[in-house]
Amino acid sequence: MPDTLAPELKPPVRILMGPGPSDVHPRVLAALAASTVGHLDPYYLALMNDMQAMLRSLMRTTNRMTFAVSATGSAGMEATVVNLIEPGDAMVVCVNGVFGGRMVDVAQRAGARLTRVDRPWGAVFEPADLADALAKAKPKVVGIVMAETSTGAWQPIEEISRLVHDAGALLLVDAVTALGGIPVEVDRWQIDALYSGTQKCLSCPPGLAPISFSDRAMEVILARKTKVQSWYLDASMLAKYWGEERVYHHTAPINMTYALYEALRLIHEEGIEACHARHMRNHRALAAGLAALGISYAAAEGHRLPMLNAVWIPAGIDDAAVRGMLLSRFGIEIGGGLGDFKGRVWRIGLMGHSSRANNVFTFLGALEQLLAERGHRFEHGASLAAANEAYATAASAT
Amino acid sequence: MPDTLAPELKPPVRILMGPGPSDVHPRVLAALAASTVGHLDPYYLALMNDMQAMLRSLMRTTNRMTFAVSATGSAGMEATVVNLIEPGDAMVVCVNGVFGGRMVDVAQRAGARLTRVDRPWGAVFEPADLADALAKAKPKVVGIVMAETSTGAWQPIEEISRLVHDAGALLLVDAVTALGGIPVEVDRWQIDALYSGTQKCLSCPPGLAPISFSDRAMEVILARKTKVQSWYLDASMLAKYWGEERVYHHTAPINMTYALYEALRLIHEEGIEACHARHMRNHRALAAGLAALGISYAAAEGHRLPMLNAVWIPAGIDDAAVRGMLLSRFGIEIGGGLGDFKGRVWRIGLMGHSSRANNVFTFLGALEQLLAERGHRFEHGASLAAANEAYATAASAT
Q1: On the CB side of B286, how many CA atoms lie within 13 Å of its CA?
Q2: pLDDT tens, B94-122?
Q3: CATH number of the domain residue B380 falls in
Q4: Is this structure's pTM higher than 0.95?
Q5: Domain match, B60 and B158 both
Q6: Is residue A340 very low, low, confident or very high in pLDDT (cuts 50, 70, 90)?
Q7: Listed residue (A321, A333, A204, A191) closest to A262, CA to CA
Q8: Does residue A341 share a domain with residue A197?
Q9: Which member of A50, A82, B89, B196 lies 3.0 to 4.6 Å from B140 by CB, making a disulfide possible if both were Cys?
Q10: Are B263 and B296 part of one and the same domain?
């Protein structure tokens, strides 16, 4: 075998408006390239503490066990499930899109006796939808997705949490796309286990999964009769590295942690509420612009995520061709549909550093051009006018 | 809870001569900060192909299923074990240090009927040491660590592989510290599953686990009766993302992949054999310098890893104090001992970009100064003289 030399690394500059990764803030990229130190270096241990404090603040929690799993968001899902579930434990999972379905798969592999509750894609769960399953299954854990990235649906958590806790269960929440984009109140909503990902509303590349376990969840984990099936994700061992003992478990992804650290600093500089408001403002402008082009949302009215806009592809438009043109002519990435929504839905992300008026304008301009070329009729500039009207309304409201 | 703002990111510049992470090449840090693209971007898909080709070349394999697990080296271990083992399968694990012990834990969590074969720390396994266990356990898989980072022992693989295959088992090899530092011949040695980490001899930050499965291993995995217990690490699903279909599984860690890509380019530019020779040359110089200071190795003669020098701490020397001084006064990180070797052994890494004559010189200078301050007697400059003599010998031999 001859040695193989690959070409120079020259990634194109994209505008990432898909379902993640989203645009990475330049300060976060610079942080990634900061000089690597050891995972037991005093500087790194102090950085871990500061990073955890910022994560707690963003998640609105005092949970000690708030840290970052050394892998992507899906590993965060697996970490919460395999730590809380022992073989034979009952679990209820709410499914209204791809990621609820993934949680079912993960939980079954962990040996859960699983009850699946389904709602149509794009819809959300009302507490009443869960009552039967809770009564029958008497679950140890209930899992639900707060921001379903496949449908753009925004799932309210507070009332369901009350019901879940009244039934004596622990609440596990997928906040992969939620964290940083919409309010996530771990303590006030009594969430027992929550995970997220760095590549959505945190303006950071993919690679880490912020996570939090309530004290009650940690008691359950530390009282397990069986070992957690995953050594890598075992929270009882991770607690000793992320806690005061600093016992070596695995070598932490140092530079990715720098990136998450800087990303969290950016959010705290902006202010958490201001960050959420920015996501909402840009969403409303995008939605107004899309409406002017005759494009409507897949998620139910009143339950639309500001950072993930799942919309029906206009009639007669070739999904792959238009997404390809957006990428090749304008450098804009948006997402196609998954599962039931494949070929029917576009997923337009306005997450983290991608959630900027500039991106709204450039995307609407590009889309208007591509639709016009394909014979769609509307007043030229209508989408821009509608977006700017929405911005004006937002500005006058503050 | 008030918003929490952490201090500016300002990591110190270290010389990383511990057991990993090792020094990251500046070009790899620059690659980390390259602009993020989507995980299904045509550019990224092409980059994955090129990265895989370079990994195959470095591992000396044509295995299709050669890729990088989206997590650190320990997750590479877990990935190989949980894919190959179904509950009740027999597995033999060779233990002569911490990482063999870790593999036992991982395998038991996967439901293996486990037979553990022990050798003293610092020793290696001879084929004869395994004969009994193979005959009695009739294992499906035999796991062994090629470069035991806790002891610095270099385990030969070729003969053991023959024995393992004669017994009808698959061979699983930990090459976390080996890959890039010493020859790893996946095809010639018939290794069925191999994993490594980016933060050792690849001059890259921690965060990915290069891995390879032989076709025979993939047949076994695809014929499983049970699902792999880890969704995140399931090779049958990962094969669809890393293979031609490019089916979305989880969001890949884009920027870490850039870093690994650039790290592999550096090794291929240098040449794989030249890279191994460099590791050996710097090891011999360090060993000569240490001998001049009266310091000897923990691993058996003839089985010492060039990139991980585990040495006995000189009598009367306070482990933590001297390592603390190396870090605070000279910015040099070396590793302490793990497990049985805690407080008795130093682990001096010369891995990847850390394996440079400059680092050998600066480390010997610093250590000589610290030992002299503590009343150890030797001719001043003796360690440097010995190191340079070793370099001269190496130069005249080529």
Answers
A1: 32
A2: 999 999 999 999 999 999 999 999 999 99
A3: 3.90.1150.10
A4: yes
A5: yes
A6: confident
A7: A204
A8: no
A9: B89
A10: no
Phi first, then psi, for residue A346 (nearest 5°) are -105, 145
As beta bridge partners, residue A297 has: A311
Q: Using an 8 Å CB-CB cutoff, list chain A residues near B53.
A: 4, 6
Distance, in Å, from the CA atom of B182 to the CA atom of B167, rounded to the nearest integer, reads: 27
Closest residue on chain A to B176 (Cα): A251
- For residues B39-68, average pLDDT: 97
Domains in chain A, number:
2
Based on the fold, state whether residues A255 and A298 are members of the same structural domain.
no
Inter-chain CB proximity A232 and B74 less than 8 Å:
yes
Q: Which pLDDT does position B397 carry in this prediction?
A: 87
pLDDT digits (tens, 9 = 90+) for B195-221: 999 999 999 999 999 999 999 999 999
Q: Which residue of A has its CA nearest to B2?
A: A57
List CB contacts (< 8 A) between B105 and chain A.
231
Minimal C-alpha gap between B45 and chain A (Å) = 11
- Please report whether residue A10 resides in a domain: no
Query: CA of B128 to nearest chain A CA: how many angstroms apart?
Result: 31
* B3, part of any domain: no
CA angle centred on B257, ends B254 and B261, rounded to 5°: 140
Q: Which residues of chain B are within 8 Å of residue A53 when distances are taken between CB atoms?
A: 4, 6
At A213 the pLDDT is 98
Going A215 to A58 to A161 to A339, the CA torsion angle's sign is negative
Mark yes or no for CB contact B227/A252 under 8 Å.
no
Question: B312 to chain A nearest CA, in Å?
Answer: 21
Query: Which of these three, A215, A249, A268, is where a domain ends?
Result: A268
Burial of B44 (0-12, 13-18, 19+ CB in 10 A): buried
Residue B282 has pLDDT above 60, yes or no: yes
Stretch B125-130: mean pLDDT: 98
Tell if the CB–CB gap between A38 and B227 is shorter than 8 Å. no
pLDDT at A4 over 80: no
Residue A3 lies in a domain: no
User: Can you state the percent helix, strand and coil of chain A, rounding each to 5?
Assistant: 45, 15, 40
pLDDT greater than 90 at residue A357: yes
Over residues A228-284, the pLDDT tens digits come to 999 999 999 999 999 888 899 999 999 999 999 999 999 999 999 999 999 999 999
Q: Which residues of A touch B252 (CB under 8 A)?
A: 72, 206
Do B303 and B335 share a domain, yes or no?
yes
- Count CB-CB contacts under 10 A for residue B157: 25
Contacts of B199 in chain A (CB under 8 A): 251
Best A17, A27, A35, A105 member to test B by mutation, with max B CBs in 10 Å, is A35
With a CB cutoff of 8 Å and minimum separation 6, the contacts of A300 are A122, A123, A124, A153
> Which pair of tokens denotes residue A253?
């992804």
Number of A to B CB contacts under 8 A, please give it: 271
Q: What is the predicted ipTM?
A: 0.97
Q: Looking at the complex, report in whole angstroms how far the Cα of residue A377 sits from the nearest Cα belonging to chain B.
A: 30
Spell out which residues of chain A touch residue B44, defining contact as CB-CB under 8 Å: 11
Whether B57 and A269 lie within 8 Å, measured CB to CB: no
Is residue A7 one of the residues assigned to a domain?
no
> What whole-number distance in Å separates Cα of residue B168 and Cα of residue B139?
8
**Could you tell me if A193 and A173 are in contact, meaning their C-beta atoms sit under 8 angstroms apart?**
yes
Quote the domain boundaries for residue B328: 272-397
pLDDT digits (tens, 9 = 90+) for A190-208: 999 999 999 999 999 999 9
Chosen domain end from A268, A285, A315: A268
Q: Please tell me whether residues B289 and B380 are part of one structural domain.
A: yes
Amino acid letter, B153: A
